[in-house]
From TrEMBL:
InterPro entries: ENDOU, EndoU-like, EndoU_C. Monomer. The lineage of its organism: Eukaryota, Viridiplantae, Streptophyta, Embryophyta, Tracheophyta. This is EndoU domain-containing protein. Residues 33-91 are annotated as: Disordered. Belongs to the ENDOU family. Residues 73-83 have a biased composition (Basic residues). The keyword RNA-binding applies. Residues 57-72 have a biased composition (Basic and acidic residues). It comes from Buddleja alternifolia. Its cofactor is Mn(2+). Residues 43-55 have a biased composition (Polar residues). One of its GO terms (molecular function) is RNA endonuclease activity. Keywords: Endonuclease, Hydrolase, Lyase, Manganese, Metal-binding, Nuclease, RNA-binding.
Length: 388
């Protein structure tokens, strides 16, 4: 485990109150944390494996002599510090990577789908929520400030500060979280730009799938899909299928090889045709990191439909409005604090066995898991909508 931790992201939060000027970092994630090169509801990469900064994005953070860079959002919000680091362990060949131990399939963890779960997809989806042992605890692992609510059509900023007040730096030492973050700098955020996938990035993809495949949600997913005859009983074949499903490139915005399920759902894209719009971007980790760098401007939550419960600091399902790189996303929804393996598992299960709308109770949340397909074998988009 020590070998894995070495060289991972270390995000630390500085609790000094912000003031002063309204600077924004326009750098990519790779530039902030390393010293290398750089949807609505529905870049090309260098040889180092890091994303090249698009022409209209530039770095404006202040780097200190101690190797830390201060990044800003709004004047009223405290500053975060994001540690610059090299992921040397992730650059080694796959057979030299160090992974966490396999989850124990016995004992208190039951990863064998029951007949009832196999007969009712919603029960299988809820079981994945129960198996998310890596989910964070509000108030203990992180803190959010939802600000004020608004209607979708309202454009004024209803949040004085950031959505995330703080996040424990230990979170990014967790193997699946760290592997997930290593993927975020592999993409050009502008839709229609052909992606160039380096051997290093393919290694990161395979290593991420290998890491999450050792967790309870993914093992349960395999057993569920295998019982339904969707995938092979062979776990190695299953992992290859998962890598292909989430990372194989397809066309979006008129350009072949410009997008993938992972990029759209978790990283986000900016539509270039007509008025610019943010597409995809339904992941809280990506949101936190981009917000810490000043590239995301949180503008408040969207009022629940049918006068449902208002979100608060304990909520782990939010519908919000924000700007990313100065481009508005008027309505977006995502889970907060869930693990990468949970989201991969739940969207994969809905893709293979669900419909476009998949209604389920996940813990205390009535949710519609939306799943859009491109053709018969590609995930176009997937995200949760609060069904209340």
């Amino acid at each position: 485990m020590d070998g894995l931790v070495k060289g991972l992201i270390n995000v630390a939060l500085d609790h000094i109150q912000g003031g002063g000027d309204d600077e924004r970092s326009r750098s990519t994630w790779a530039q902030v944390v390393t010293t290398g090169d750089p949807e609505n509801h529905d870049g090309s990469s260098s040889n180092t494996g890091y994303t090249t900064t698009p022409p209209n994005i530039r770095e404006e953070g202040r780097e200190n002599d101690d190797g830390w860079e201060t990044v800003h959002k709004k004047p009223s919000k405290q500053h975060h510090k994001v540690h610059r680091d090299q992921w040397n362990n992730y650059k080694r060949p796959l057979d030299e990577q160090e992974y966490s131990s396999e989850v124990d399939s016995g004992g208190d963890i039951d990863i064998e789908p029951s007949k009832l779960e196999l007969a009712d997809l919603s029960k299988g989806l809820n079981k994945l929520w129960e198996l998310d042992l890596n989910r964070l605890v509000p108030g203990k692992d992180y803190q959010i400030d939802c600000g004020e609510g608004k209607k979708v059509y309202q454009k004024e900023d209803m949040a004085e500060g950031s959505l995330f007040s703080w996040l424990s730096e230990d979170i990014f030492r967790r193997p699946t979280y760290a592997r997930f973050c290593s993927l975020l700098d592999n993409y050009n955020p502008h839709e229609g730009y052909k992606e160039v996938v380096t051997p290093q990035e393919r290694q990161e993809q395979a290593a991420f799938i290998e890491e999450i495949s050792r967790t309870a949600p993914i093992k349960y997913l395999h057993k569920y899909l295998s019982a339904k005859g969707i995938v092979s009983d062979d776990y190695q074949d299953f992992k290859g299928m998962m890598t292909s499903l989430w990372f194989d490139l397809y066309g979006r915005g008129g350009t072949y090889g410009s997008s993938s399920a992972f990029e759209h759902v978790f990283v986000g894209e900016i539509k270039q045709q007509g008025e610019q719009q943010v597409s995809g971007f339904h992941n809280w980790i990506q949101f936190y990191l981009e917000e810490a760098k000043g590239r995301v401007d949180y503008q408040g939550y969207i009022f629940p439909r049918r006068h449902g419960q208002m979100p608060d600091s304990e909520s782990q399902l939010l519908t919000i409005q924000f700007e990313w790189n100065g481009v508005l996303k008027s309505v977006s929804s995502s889970f907060i604090g869930v693990s990468p393996e949970f989201e991969i598992a739940i969207y994969t299960l809905c893709f293979y066995l669900g419909a476009e709308d998949n209604y389920v109770d996940l813990g205390p949340y009535p949710v519609n898991i939306k799943c859009f397909r491109l053709g018969n074998n590609k995930i176009g988009s997937a995200f949760p909508i609060a069904d209340s």
